Amino acid sequence: MPFFEPLPPEPPPRPRAGVWMPPSWDRPSEGTLPAILPVEAVAHRGAEVAVAVEYLGVYPDGFTVHVAILPDPHRGWEMHRIHGGGGRHIPRVGVRFADGSVGGNRAGVQHAGSNVEKDERGLPTGPFVAFGGGGGGPQQGWRLWRWVHPLPPEGPLEIFVALPAVGLVEASVTVEGTSVREAARRARVIWS
After folding, report:
1. Which pLDDT tens digit goes with each residue over 18-53?
2. Residues 123-159: pLDDT tens digits?
3. 117-to-1, 56, 126, 127, 128 alpha-carbon distances in Å
4. Distance in angstroms between the alpha carbons of the first and the last residue of the chain
5. What distance in Å separates the CA atoms of residue 145 and residue 138, rounded to the nearest whole number?
6. What is the fold, at CATH topology level, of the domain defined by 32-189?
7. How far apart are CA 26 and CA 43, in angstroms?
């Protein structure tokens, strides 16, 4: 005799109207396993906190920048103020491609519905940097990521980070754009 009672029958499927699909440039490729490109660069180390660019998750059409905010483990609970309100408490991430084009340098959070300049095909005319997600807390630190579209050209890719609440006005790390493009070829499309 089974422990669980039988589930009620499933309702019949509802007919679907057209399915909305997001623009291909406003988020990482769904159904794709990114290639990991280690960066492992400390952008800032203050008395209370360090900010590092850990790695890039590289997709066929862009990449995610993964940032770690690591508090001194002996002062963790004091660092709850990092996550307060206002722009000084929100980490900023931006990029400069080798061709001089920039993204993420405007105040505020960019998203597909924001005022993004697009060409006649509906694609952004420059690098698009959007909030991705993140989490954490004062004991183990915070980790967050930002989405960048498109892939950078060959040459230096500068990644800028700022977090004024901890004294990081602006710092940058450089990654070779060619390495990012090569990593994109290792991304695995599981579902297209």
Report:
1. 777 778 888 998 899 999 999 999 999 988 889 999
2. 899 999 998 888 887 778 889 999 999 999 999 999 9
3. 64, 25, 8, 10, 9
4. 43
5. 18
6. Immunoglobulin-like (2.60.40)
7. 26
Give the span between the Cα atoms of 150 and 58, in whole angstroms.
10
Which tokens sit at 111? Answer: 């998203």
Q: Using a CB cutoff of 8 Å and minimum separation of 24, what contacts does 131-139 make?
A: 132/27, 132/28, 132/64, 136/69, 138/71, 138/76, 138/77, 138/78, 138/79, 138/80, 138/82, 138/83, 139/71, 139/73, 139/76, 139/77
Residue type, 127: P
Q: What are phi and psi of 166, to 5 degrees?
A: -115, 15
What does the domain layout of the chain look like in residue ranges? Answer: 32-189
